[in-house]
Recover the amino acids of this structure.
């Protein structure tokens, strides 16, 4: 699965790509069993709700469901291109229904609810309060403005044009070093590969009823990682191109503070949990569609 990325603080991935198409194709041809969803019980009084809301606001998580939903059309189109590349296509009677299932599984409110549940469950008052304070500083606010702009205006063609321009005008060594330092701080490519692999495994287990082991998960992650590293470099260069080297260096130092490192861990867990849980819902809904169609025939 190739993950299209949102450009928030931690560069949150959104699922859209070729392998996602392969997984959906599996959903149409594999006899499935119900997906297993792990329920996480919220901690009692872990954080004031206002602090959780503030953490979601400054990190961009409040917009995550909307961003996810906005990817449904390109995700579905990419899925169909992937199928056509294999000489396959969705049956006419399946196409509209599968699109509706994807819309329902990754609906804005459904995704936001999953993220909010996880953030509340794992909130640590000290880390959240420090993160909110640090992410409201002028520099962090300026950086988030560039990230928001990328979210609103980027497209695959725009990213591809920027990548082509890098061939003609490579970044300076200092900028390359800073981008490398940023990636070593936020570990976006690793997170993309981890999330991708978990989504595919969750769907496979839900659809086939067969368990997977850590070796299979690790192998899948390693297949995804090279492309994730390549796309991460291009996106980071593009998003932060209007920051000076000094500003980018200061922002990296901010992200390396212990409180923000801890906040990143919680943030990533919330996003990954939301994506995996909604993927399991997707698998279950597709299975129901398959069963209904089979019963009719």
């Amino acid at each position: 699965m190739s993950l299209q990325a949102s450009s928030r603080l931690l560069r949150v991935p959104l699922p859209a790509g070729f392998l996602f198409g392969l997984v959906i194709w599996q959903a149409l041809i594999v006899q499935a069993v119900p997906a297993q969803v792990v329920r996480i019980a919220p901690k009692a009084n872990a954080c004031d709700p206002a602090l959780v809301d503030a953490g979601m606001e400054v990190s961009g998580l409040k917009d995550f469901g909307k961003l996810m939903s906005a990817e449904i059309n390109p995700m579905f189109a990419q899925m169909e291109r992937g199928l056509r590349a294999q000489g396959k296509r969705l049956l006419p009677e399946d196409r509209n229904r599968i699109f509706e299932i994807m819309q329902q599984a990754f609906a804005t409110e459904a995704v936001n609810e999953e993220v909010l549940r996880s953030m509340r469950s794992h909130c640590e008052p000290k880390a959240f309060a420090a993160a909110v304070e640090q992410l409201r500083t002028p520099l962090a606010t300026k950086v988030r403005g560039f990230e928001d702009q990328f979210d609103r205006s980027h497209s695959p063609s725009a990213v591809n044009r920027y990548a082509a321009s890098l061939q003609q005008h490579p970044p300076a060594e200092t900028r390359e070093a800073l981008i490398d330092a940023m990636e070593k701080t936020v570990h976006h490519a690793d997170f993309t590969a981890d999330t991708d692999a978990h989504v595919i495994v969750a769907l496979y287990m839900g659809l086939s009823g067969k368990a997977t082991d850590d070796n299979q998960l690790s192998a899948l992650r390693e297949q995804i990682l090279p492309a994730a590293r390549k796309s991460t470099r291009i996106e980071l260069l593009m998003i932060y191109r209007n920051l000076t080297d000094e500003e980018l260096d200061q922002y990296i130092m901010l992200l390396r503070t212990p409180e923000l490192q801890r906040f990143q861990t919680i943030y990533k867990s919330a996003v990954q949990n939301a994506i995996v849980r909604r993927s399991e819902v997707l698998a279950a809904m597709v299975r129901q569609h398959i069963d209904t169609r089979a019963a009719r025939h």
Summary: The two ends are 32 Å apart (CA to CA). The first helix runs from residue 18 to 29.
